[in-house]
């Protein structure tokens, strides 16, 4: 639409006379989009705060306890390293805190050794500090150490060089504080303030599963209306799912660690096993849904037939994802999610029987594959899931793209009983 190039006075006069402002719709649309982005950003930030709230409280408690024990009980006049070690153990490697504590201590040992050795021969100063850090980093990398050890060795070397002139006998307190901080972090995680592992995972899983369900719904609507833009938008949003999947994977690791360390959470181990085993199938369901949505875009572009059961099948997949999320959160056997996955396959079989094109056949195949992934995520073995999928799909012998005979209705496939 061309922009009105008349002077502002003329345009205002035209508006008063009842003419339409040709820029109004565009401005309203932009304003609405900005308002939506603002709400989405605030929602995402609040969700991140809720996700990190428990960890923040744990870190605060561990830091305070580490400072108290080091200063009051051990008599350390400058208890800086203990709270730093406690916070580093908690925050740097969620789900790997035992390993993080070991890395912390090893890094401290390398940093102390390199720092003391070079200070003894070279003294202290700016260039000595640079040399100590360089040697510490190169030595740990040569030994094949992890990034955490490299960083800890370099940081300890800096502290040794900069504080040695003013603080005597710094090495032993540094080792003690490393042990103390890591140990208190594990104590807080396992005994004093263990998080509810299922709650942590549920909060982490919600964004990933909600994203998948909402984009499958959008794809189903786009196919019903032959709206390419809607389906393309769903594809682009689903592609940006790396953060959600990474958060889910990290939460599962952290929850498994909590259930291992904390006696109060040992009874949750079986429930956590379901979640841990579901992570990979959910990831595969995401990827296969991406293929499904991408091929749906091509289907609309090529003006292939869209039988009514096809968008219904994709809608059932979306509902299966939502039911899986709900039943996992409630600690229930995901029977409703399984039934809905099989219903999606049954509808896909009907769509195939009515006749689809090349891209349509790919969409049908991806419905089957995604449903299989969701069944496996619900706790079904892969071979059994495949058998259920074949049964729900039914026998469809008509060649791809060939329409049904006039008056002939495809035989509806039946889903096996759930139990």
Automatic annotation (TrEMBL):
Localization terms from the record = Membrane
This chain belongs to the protein called Aromatic acid exporter family protein
The record's InterPro entries line, in alphabetical order, gives:
Memb_transporter_dom
List, for all copies, the residue spans of the domain called Integral membrane bound transporter.
Answer: 65-188
The superkingdom listed in its UniProt entry is: Bacteria
Which parts of this chain are annotated as the region Disordered? 394-419
Q: Mind listing the UniProt keywords for this protein, alphabetically?
A: Coiled coil, Membrane, Transmembrane, Transmembrane helix
Give the stretches traversing the membrane: 49-68, 80-98, 105-123, 135-163, 175-195
Membrane topology recorded in Swiss-Prot or TrEMBL = Multi-pass membrane protein
Per the record's keyword annotation, is Coiled coil included, yes or no?
yes
């Amino acid at each position: 639409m061309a922009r009105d190039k008349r002077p502002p006075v003329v345009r205002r006069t035209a508006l008063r006379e009842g003419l339409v402002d040709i820029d109004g719709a565009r401005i309203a649309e932009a304003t609405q989009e900005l308002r939506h982005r603002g709400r989405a950003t605030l929602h995402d930030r609040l969700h991140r705060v809720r996700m990190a709230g428990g960890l923040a409280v744990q870190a605060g408690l561990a830091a305070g306890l580490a400072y108290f024990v080091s200063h009051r009980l051990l008599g350390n006049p400058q208890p800086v390293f203990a709270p730093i070690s406690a916070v580093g153990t908690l925050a740097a490697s969620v789900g790997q805190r035992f390993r993080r504590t070991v890395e912390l201590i090893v890094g401290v040992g390398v940093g102390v050794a390199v720092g003391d050795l070079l200070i003894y021969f070279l003294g202290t100063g700016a260039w000595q500090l640079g040399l100590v850090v360089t040697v510490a980093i190169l030595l740990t990398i040569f030994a094949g150490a992890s990034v955490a050890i490299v960083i800890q060795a370099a940081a300890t070397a800096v502290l040794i060089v900069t504080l040695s002139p003013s603080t005597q006998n710094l090495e032993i307190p540094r080792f003690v504080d490393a042990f103390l901080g890591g140990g208190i972090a594990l104590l807080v995680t396992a005994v004093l303030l263990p998080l509810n592992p299922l709650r942590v995972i549920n909060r982490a899983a919600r964004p990933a599963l909600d994203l998948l369900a909402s984009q499958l719904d959008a794809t189903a609507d786009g196919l019903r209306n032959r709206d390419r833009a809607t389906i393309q938008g769903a594809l682009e949003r689903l592609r940006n799912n790396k953060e959600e999947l990474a958060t889910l994977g990290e939460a599962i690791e952290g929850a498994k660690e909590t259930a291992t360390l904390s006696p109060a959470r040992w009874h949750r181990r079986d429930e956590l096993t379901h979640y841990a085993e579901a992570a990979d199938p959910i990831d595969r369901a995401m990827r296969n849904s991406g293929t499904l949505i991408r091929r749906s875009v091509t289907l609309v572009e090529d003006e292939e037939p869209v039988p009514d059961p096809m968008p219904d099948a994709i809608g059932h997949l979306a509902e299966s994802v939502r039911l899986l999320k709900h039943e996992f959160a409630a600690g229930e056997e995901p029977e409703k999610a399984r039934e809905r996955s099989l219903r999606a396959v049954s509808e896909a079989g009907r769509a195939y029987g009515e006749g689809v094109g090349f891209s349509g056949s790919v969409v049908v195949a991806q419905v089957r594959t995604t449903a299989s992934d969701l069944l496996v995520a619900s706790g079904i073995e892969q071979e059994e899931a495949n058998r259920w999928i074949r049964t729900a799909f039914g026998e469809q012998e008509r060649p791809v793209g060939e329409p049904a005979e006039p008056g002939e209705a495809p035989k509806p496939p039946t889903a096996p009983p759930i139990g």
